[in-house]
Specification:
Layout lengths: L1 H53 L31 E5 L19 H7 L2 E6 L9 E5 L4 E4 L20 E2 L2
Antiparallel strand pairs: 1-2, 2-3, 3-4, 4-5
C-alpha cells in the first residue's frame, strides 16, 4: 500500500512539475528571449547608425553595413550563433519606406542598397522552445512581429507579403 501511495505521489509531483514548466517557466523564458531579441535589434540599429556616421569601413561614403551581422562588432553577436535563443540575419531587401513596393534586386546596385538603408530579422533558434515570434527591423526603427513558425524572413514585407499579417511593435 505504501509503495502504491509513493508511486501515486511521485506521479502527481511529476505532473505538477511539468505543468509548472510548460505553463509558467517556459513561457516566461520565451518572453524574456523575445524581449532580448528586440533589444538586440535596437542595438543593431544603433550600431548601423554609428557605422554610417563614423564611416567605419573607410570608403569615404556614409553608407550602412549590409553584408552580415559580424561586421557591426556588436558584443556577443556573431553570424550563425544564437544569442538568448535567437538568430539574427540581415534582410536581402529592406525598403520599408513603402509597404506596397516589391523590390527587384536586379534594379538596385549594391552601393545604392547600402546608401538607402538596412534591415534585420531575428528568429527563434529552436522554435517553440526558445521563442515563437520572428521580428523585423528597418533603418527607420520600425519593428514588426509575426509568428512565422520559426522560419527566417529575408525581405521586408511588401505587396508580395502583405503587412496585414505583421504587427508593428509600439
Amino acid at each position: 500500500m505504501k509503495i502504491v501511495a509513493a508511486t501515486l505521489l511521485a506521479a502527481a509531483l511529476a505532473v505538477a512539475a511539468a505543468v509548472l514548466y510548460f505553463a509558467v517557466l517556459r513561457p516566461r523564458a520565451i518572453r524574456e528571449n523575445e524581449a532580448a531579441a528586440v533589444a538586440t535589434l535596437e542595438t543593431l540599429r544603433e550600431a548601423q547608425l554609428r557605422f554610417r556616421v563614423q564611416d567605419r569601413d573607410g570608403n569615404k561614403i556614409n553608407d550602412f553595413w549590409t553584408a552580415d551581422i559580424a561586421g557591426l562588432d556588436v558584443p556577443g553577436l556573431t553570424d550563425g550563433r544564437p544569442l538568448r535563443g535567437y538568430l539574427f540575419i540581415p534582410l536581402l531587401d529592406h525598403d520599408c519606406s513603402t509597404a506596397n513596393d516589391i523590390i527587384d534586386p536586379r534594379m538596385i546596385s549594391y552601393l545604392d542598397d547600402r546608401l538607402s538603408g538596412f534591415g534585420f530579422c531575428a528568429y527563434p533558434a529552436d522554435y517553440g522552445r526558445t521563442g515563437k515570434t520572428t521580428f523585423l527591423l528597418c533603418e527607420h526603427g520600425d519593428i514588426l512581429r509575426l509568428d512565422s513558425g520559426g522560419r527566417p524572413v529575408t525581405r521586408w514585407p511588401g505587396s508580395a507579403c502583405p503587412q496585414l499579417m505583421w504587427q508593428k511593435l509600439d
